[in-house]
Amino acid sequence: MAPKSFSFPGIFPALLASSLALLLLPTPIIAVHDYHDALRKSILFFEGQRSGKLPPDQRVKWRRDSALRDGSTAGVPTLLPHPTFSFFTTLGSPVKSFMPFDVYFVFQVDLTGGYYDAGDNVKFGFPMAFTTTLLAWSIIDFGRNMGPELKNAVKAVKWSTDYLLKATAKPGVVYVQVGDAYSDHSCWERPEDMDTLRTVYKIDNAHPGETAAALAAASIVFRSRDPAYSRLLLNRAVRVFNFADKHRGAYSSSLHAAVCPFYCDVNGYQDELLWAAAWLHKASRKRAYREYIVKNEVVLRAGDTINEFGWDNKHAGINVLISKEVLMGRADYFESFKQNADGFICSILPGITHPQVQYSPGGLIFKAGGSNMQHVTSLSFLLLAYSNYLSHANKAVPCGERSASPALLKQLAKRQVNYILGDNPLGMSYMVGYGSRFPQRIHHRGSSLPSVAAHPGRIGCKAGSRYYLSSSPNPNLLLGAVVGGPNVSDAFPDSRPYFQESEPTTYINAPLVGLLAFFSAHP
């Protein structure tokens, strides 16, 4: 789809003054936003997405324990030939007993915990790992701006990394999904009630690169907070990365029927390997990862589709992350990554034509494909992160004969955040619970069905359909959830069946946490 044409007179002089940046896009509503309140709620959202045994300090009270047997179907019969058992007599003396026959035990895999990715009850490892990486990056770059919410952000990371450690506990195997998506999507039921297939999917000959990146990034978060846990995360990241590099290939190649069309690795495995290496280099400072990145830059296509960043395509994130070292004057050998990052910035600035990035009439970044807010928050996060790196180096981004200042990048990122919070043609917030007007009928099973406290009896698979089709607001507010958002014309149907617009996801919120943290400290 061809991008809309926008004209912004005077917006790109040789050096852009920050005051001109306010003229970037039409702003129908000017509001003073409480970024700290939005930050608090954006982190609280993750507690509503928790799977497993909920902790005593759980703040989203309408949720209950769920999926407590996840992993039980992945048990592997293990042969113990002629085992010897020890037991104790009533007198307390040990007795050894030799069994004259083989015994089989089924050792179950514990895959409880983690997050439901969106409004369903499946645990998809690929987007969960990306969510974890972006939450960790938010803390690494903007944790100092989070105030009392920092501890909750760290808890949100750990809830995921605890699960990812379970999913990678067995060498040579990574468990990448729990739950049959087709079975789950045929039902509308609370996670506390679900009786759909909890099939476990694993890979043992394809890459889990994003998982390695998530573990490495999180190891930085816990480096000073919990050194032992940080070392565990980093060591596991190294092992998973080595496995991924040895078995190069897209995880969806061997699990196509299970993960597609939901989270297909359409973009291929190459970007995940570079992404993981970049985070391992940042976390370990080992020369081997620097050399890996330089050696594989072309082979793994670092410069491809640089205006994409999300759970399937890490290219822009790779280049921005690595460019920090160039801008700090420590890594000239990564100069080509900075050139790629500059190209990415130029490709998404309004007024510069690019076939894959457009803006709605109200000023929202728009990319075709559904759940557009994932692009808005992820690309805005990179704009903000790169603007900070540029500011420290006193640099700007050259876009042909024009130049974009760090202040411009910040203002564009802020404009996107403000749109989400209510500065848009409809005058509504797209974050549940923020502002006086926000989505009421989000595509989310737990939020739309009566809570266990309100309706203790089980609500079966098809019994939930009447709640799905109801025009009534959801009974449980999933505070902080940001939905997929309006279409390219700024129109928004507040209706559950319109899942591309009304469904929240963890990977929409994860980069938004960093954005809100920064703007709460720099309003």
Automatic annotation (TrEMBL):
Its EC number is 3.2.1.4. GO terms for molecular function: cellulase activity. It is an enzyme of class 3 (hydrolase). Residues 1-31 form the signal peptide. One of its GO terms (biological process) is cellulose catabolic process. The keyword Cell inner membrane does not apply. This is Endoglucanase. It comes from Gossypium schwendimanii.
